[in-house]
């Protein structure tokens, strides 16, 4: 089992030494070659259609494009030392090691937003993750703090699958079908729940319409909160997290119809929607969608006794076939807590799996898909961009700032605060 970093693995792909990979060798180049073009970049699923208004990144100055890795790391370290407490660098678990080594905090999107909150003295928060994460950090951080996304083209294909216009239209149709009157238990017809992996506009929509945000760690607690207040849930954008969580709570799969944006009644009959308990938006993560039951069977055949853990953004049959499922933080803690040498087959983003393998040589840890690509948008954060935004800060200039309007931030905060107040039963 190799524990080469993802960058090294991609270099192997380029040299044709890693047979069978679906990754594009273009990933080994700096992302600036494709940042200005529409699309999620090499390695992304060809089914993912990027919205025409998705942010693009302007040209990165030549000196950063041409610098060696060693020069970039040196420049990042020097800029960081010069900025001191004025900057906090946050790194998501799915970032490449070449970025993570410079992060003050490593975590999932919500842990990182909280880390930003814990540093009111920092003038700038450099978020090495994707766009919706930087938006959440802007909502939760102080009004004077600037949140910076090193590459504006680092979006999230899943978050882009539910846009505010389509969700507003869905809501209008549901209100027409169900009305707005509560039942005899005081429960309204439907409560909107958005996954953290969504735009600030959708979090604001939930805040305005009695809804709430969830993460992959607290989805069950949040769904219980919603069912105490509503007869049904409209869950977006990730159908798999919604389905896996509700199924584990006993909701029959037949009562979880899929909503196709921009179709009348989302492509469903009125009867199906009346009977529904959870209406699932037709969104998915292209990284976790690649895991399948055949990979689990293969892992079990090759490593009898293997412990299979997958992320709940994986399809339902994969979650059913695994031994356990849970958020990135759950996976990390499960590996840390294993006291005996264990073989783990893990279904989540490759950067995180490779890092766990390197940190835990006492275990055998591998990704369920041996040739999986990294998340193509997380991969857009390259040390060249990190060096650029930090050196601009040293020079007194804020580039690539992510801001959420006060109006959206206020309502999004309501939905986030409901999530924080929701307690497990
Ligand atoms: S791993 Fe999936 S959900 Fe996470 S940023 Fe990438 S595309 Fe989005």
For the largest sheet, list the strands in their spatial order.
6-5-7-9-8
User: Which ligands are bound?
Assistant: iron/sulfur cluster
Number of helices: 19
Average per-residue pLDDT, rounded, comes to 92
Oligomerization: single chain
Task: Determine the CATH superfamily of the largest domain.
Answer: NadA-like
- Structural class of the helices, strands and pairings? alpha/beta
DSSP strand tally: 13
Q: What report would you give on this structure?
A:
With 425 residues, the protein is α/β, with parallel strands linked by helices. It has 3 domains: 31-155 and 377-394, Rossmann fold (3-Layer(aba) Sandwich), CATH 3.40.50.10800; 160-286 and 409-421; 288-367, NadA-like (Rossmann fold), CATH 3.40.50.10800. Helices cover 41% and strands 12% of the residues. It has 19 helices and 13 strands. It has helices spanning 6-14, 32-35, 62-66, 69-83, 97-100, 109-117, 131-140, 157-160, 164-178, 200-208, 219-229, 239-248, 270-275, 293-302, 316-321, 328-337, 350-359, 383-394, 406-421; strands spanning 87-92, 105-107, 124-128, 146-148, 191-195, 212-214, 233-236, 258-259, 278-281, 307-310, 324-325, 343-347, 364-367. The strands form 3 sheets. It has a 5-stranded parallel sheet with strand order 6-5-7-9-8, sandwiched between helices. A 4-stranded parallel sheet has the order 2-1-3-4, sandwiched between helices. The protein has a 4-stranded parallel sheet with strand order 11-10-12-13, with helices on one face. Strand 10 (307-310), helix 15 (316-321) and strand 11 (324-325) form a beta-alpha-beta unit. Helix 4 (69-83) runs parallel beside helix 18 and helix 6 (109-117) packs parallel to helix 7. The two termini are 41 Å apart. The relative contact order is 0.16. The mean pLDDT is 92. It binds iron/sulfur cluster. Residues 94, 130, 156-158, 197, 285-287, 349, 375, 377-378 line the site of iron/sulfur cluster.
């Amino acid at each position: 089992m190799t524990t080469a970093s993802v960058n090294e693995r991609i270099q192997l792909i380029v040299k044709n030494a890693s047979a069978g990979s679906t990754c594009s060798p273009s990933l080994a180049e700096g992302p600036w070659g494709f940042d200005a073009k529409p699309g999620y970049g090499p390695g992304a699923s060809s089914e993912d259609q990027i919205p025409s208004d998705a942010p693009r990144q302007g040209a990165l100055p030549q000196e950063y494009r041409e610098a060696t890795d060693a020069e970039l790391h040196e420049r990042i370290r020097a800029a960081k030392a010069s900025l001191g407490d004025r900057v906090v660098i946050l790194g998501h678990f799915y970032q490449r090691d070449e970025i993570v080594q410079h992060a003050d905090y490593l975590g999932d999107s919500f842990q990182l937003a909280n880390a930003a909150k814990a540093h009111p003295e920092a003038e700038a928060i450099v978020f090495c993750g994707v766009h919706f994460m930087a938006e959440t950090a802007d909502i939760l951080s102080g009004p004077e703090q600037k949140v910076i996304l090193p590459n504006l083209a680092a979006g999230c294909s899943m978050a882009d699958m539910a846009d505010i216009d389509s969700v507003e239209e869905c809501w209008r149709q549901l209100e027409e079908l169900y009305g707005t009157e509560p039942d005899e238990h005081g429960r309204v017809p439907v409560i909107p729940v958005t996954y953290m992996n969504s735009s600030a506009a959708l979090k604001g929509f939930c805040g305005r319409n009695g809804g709430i945000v969830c993460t992959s760690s607290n989805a069950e607690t949040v769904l219980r909160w919603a069912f105490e207040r509503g007869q049904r849930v409209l869950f977006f954008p990730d159908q798999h997290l919604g389905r896996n969580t509700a199924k584990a709570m006993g909701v029959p799969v037949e009562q979880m119809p899929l909503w196709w944006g921009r179709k009348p009644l989302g492509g469903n009959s009125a009867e199906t929607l009346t009977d529904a308990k959870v209406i699932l938006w037709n969104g998915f993560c292209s990284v976790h969608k690649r895991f399948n039951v055949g990979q689990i069977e293969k892992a079990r055949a090759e490593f009898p006794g293997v412990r299979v853990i997958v992320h709940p953004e994986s399809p339902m049959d994969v979650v059913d076939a695994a031994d356990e499922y849970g958020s990135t933080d759950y996976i990390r803690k499960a590996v840390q807590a294993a006291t005996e040498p264990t073989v783990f087959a893990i279904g989540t983003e490759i950067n995180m799996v490779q890092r766990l393998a390197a940190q835990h040589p006492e275990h055998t840890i591998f990704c369920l898909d041996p040739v999986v690509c990294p998340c193509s948008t997380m991969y857009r954060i390259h040390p060249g961009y990190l060096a650029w935004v930090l050196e601009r800060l040293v020079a007194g200039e804020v580039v690539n700032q992510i801001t959420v309007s006060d109006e959206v931030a206020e309502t999004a905060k309501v939905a986030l605060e409901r999530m924080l107040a929701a307690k497990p039963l």
